[in-house]
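Escalation from tier 1.

The customer reports that the assembly of two entities below gives different C-alpha cells on two consecutive runs. Tier 1 could not reproduce it. I'm attaching the input and our single run for tier 2 to review.
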Amino acid sequence: MTTLYGYFRSSAAYRVRIALNLKGLAYDQAPLNLVQGEQLAETNLARNPQGLVPSLITDEGVTLTQSMAICEYLDERYPEPPLLPEDITERARVRALAQVVACEIHPLNNLRVLKHLVGELGVDEETKLAWYRHWIAEGFQALESLLTAEAGTGDFCHGDTPSLADICLVPQVYNAERFECDLSAYPTIQRISANCRALPAFQQAAPEAQPDAR
Amino acid sequence: MTTLYGYFRSSAAYRVRIALNLKGLAYDQAPLNLVQGEQLAETNLARNPQGLVPSLITDEGVTLTQSMAICEYLDERYPEPPLLPEDITERARVRALAQVVACEIHPLNNLRVLKHLVGELGVDEETKLAWYRHWIAEGFQALESLLTAEAGTGDFCHGDTPSLADICLVPQVYNAERFECDLSAYPTIQRISANCRALPAFQQAAPEAQPDAR
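Tier 1 run:
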C-alpha cells in the first residue's frame, strides 16, 4: 500500500494528494503535525533527512521526497490520465507554470520561513503578513500574465484537462485565501481554480477533507 | 540559433548554461544586468512576464522560462547524454535532489529576496548574510545527509555521470562560496562539486567565463 506522510495544510502534501487522486490511486495517510514540529522527529528524519513533508512510501517500499519529483514519478509510473501534455514544448510550458508556484512563491511563504521571520528576524505579525502577501502578489501577477497571454490556457492552466500546473496552483490559491490575500486582480487564476475545485480529485485532496484537519 | 537571456551570476541561468553545454548545443547569450534591473524592462517583460531570468529562445523561436522546465525540455528534445536516469525511481531521486536546491535553498537566497529583505524589512548587512547562510546550512545539511545515506550517490549526485541534480548543485555551491559560507560540514557536496568543476561543460558555464562577467 502506498503511504503519504503529510500534513493537511502543507501545500506540498496537498499537491501530492491531488496527483494521487487524479491517477485514481488508493493511499494511506500518516499525518505529521508541522506546527508541533513532528517532521523534525528522529523517525521522520530517518525517512526524510530534509525534515520536511511530504514523503511518499510507494507500494514497492521506496521512499520518495519533494512533491514535484513525486508527481513526475506518479506520472511516469501511471501514465493515465497524464499530468503533462505529450508535446515537449507544451510540457515545458506546464512545468514552467508549476514552477512559478513551486520555485518562486511557495518556498518564500511556507511555515518554516514564516517561523524564521518571526523567531530569528523578530518581525511582527503585520510585517509577516505583508511578506506573505508580497510574494503572492509578485507570483500571481506573473502567473496571471502568462495565463492570459499564452494560447495554451483553457479551462485549466493548460488546455481542458488538469495538469501539474493546476496541481500546484490550487494549493497556492488555498493558502492565499487563508492569509486573506486580495485575489481580485487575478481573474484567470480564480476561474481555473474554481474549475479545478469542481472536480472530486481536488475536493478530496483539500485540507479540510483530511483526517488530521482540525 | 538558440538564445539564452541570462546573467552571469544568476544561479538559474548558470543551470541552463551547464545543461546546454552537457548536451553540446551552441547558443547565443543575451545578458540582462539583474543588479541594474534590466530583467524588469518592458522588452524583457514581453518575453518573460515573470521579470526573471533565464529565458531560452529555442531554434524554433519558442520562448521557454523557468530553469528546471528548460533543463527537462532540453533533455526531452536532445536525449544524449541524458540528464536523468532511465529508471523511474532513480529519476525521482535525481529530481528530488535537484529540488532540494531549486525549491528549498535558492528561492530564499536569490537577489530579489535579498533586496526585499534590505529594502522593505530594513535588515542590516549582517542579518542579510545570516539569512543567506541559514538557508544554505539547512539545505546543504539535508542534501549532505541524502547524498551520504543513499546508495545512488557516486562520483556525481547520482552515479558516475552528471545529472540534473549536479546542474543545480554546482551553481548553489558557487553562490555559497561567494557569500563565504562555511562548507566544511559537507564533504560529499564538496567532492561532487569538484568532480563537476573538472568537466569543460561546467567550466564553460561558470559565471567568470561569461561575456557579461565583470
